[in-house]
Amino acid sequence: MTAENPILKAASWAAGVLPVSIKKLLYKIPFLARLIRRSLNIAAPDGFSEITIAAGAAKGLRMILDLQSEKDYWLGTYESDLDAAAQKLIGHGDTVYDVGANVGYVSLLSAQLSGKSGKVFAFEALPANVERLQKNVLINAFESRIAVTHAAVIDSNQPVTFLTHPSGAMGKALGSDGRNEQYDGQITVPGLALDIFVYGENHPAPDIIKMDIEGGEGKALAGMPRLLAEKKPILLIELHGEIAAHQVWNHLRQNNYSVHQMRRGYPKITQVSALDWKAYIIAISKQKINLLT
Fold first, then answer.
1. Which pLDDT value is given to residue 290?
2. Burial 164-183 (b: 16+ CB within 10 A, else e)
3. Residue ranges of E strands in the chain
4. CA neighbor of 211 nearest in space, from 101, 80, 85, 90
5. What predicted TM-score, i.e. pTM, was given to this entire model?
6. pLDDT digits (tens, 9 = 90+) for 170-194
7. Separation of alpha carbons 153 and 202, rounded Å
8. What is the rounded distance in angstroms from the CA atom of residue 153 to the CA atom of residue 194?
9. Is 201 exposed, middle or buried (CB count within 10 Å of its CB: 0-12, 13-18, 19+)?
């Protein structure tokens, strides 16, 4: 599809050759950022299209995307620090849990990095996201590498009320902390605790967990005390709000995790007050900390 439009073709080429730092700089110049977005919006088709990711760690993978609102996946500008951390920490044969998988960008990336001997478990609560996630798995022939579970990861195995955002692309389990968005609806979805998923249902324990669940991070960690104590998976977490940050911090400190900023150099965080309202962190056991060097 992008090859048929000269503007989209040029954008795809530029995304593939420009360093991440330059792409970030372009979007920090207001008039230039507006010009780029306006030009791409005019050129991009409405609705969903199957596209090839142009840059970043997932370059070459295919996704079904709405290019009016999901250009960051296509151009490789989605969470570049998470991209870099995934490349550094996910190895061949690893088992990766993608908690809050959305439409599957991180799941696909993880499957590519962990290889044919690895396994990815993708957990997503919103039915529309699950449907597109499954399609994205299929078009990359990753059925044997990615297992999709329709559920919200919480602290127990029981149905949970899930609040839905007007965008249709995100939501959170009732009782989660985080941002005070105007959620306009609610649905009931399966809820699961990761300790039960692993030790009760005999799924492979994760080596790495990526977690982005809009303030539900504390509830998810409360459902995996044995994993945190025994397996000690590496955690890549997007925190949402002060309460969630304190909840996560307490779980991590109780289990002797070392906590680091998810950015170049991976500076160590020594107190919870150093975290911003929205923060990206890596939590890693002291036995594995050398992986960050």
1. 93
2. bbeeebbbbbeebbbeeeeb
3. 48-52, 62-66, 95-99, 119-124, 146-150, 152-153, 160-164, 171-173, 185-189, 191-192, 208-211, 234-240, 257-261, 278-285
4. 101
5. 0.92
6. 787 887 776 666 777 889 999 999 9
7. 17
8. 7
9. exposed
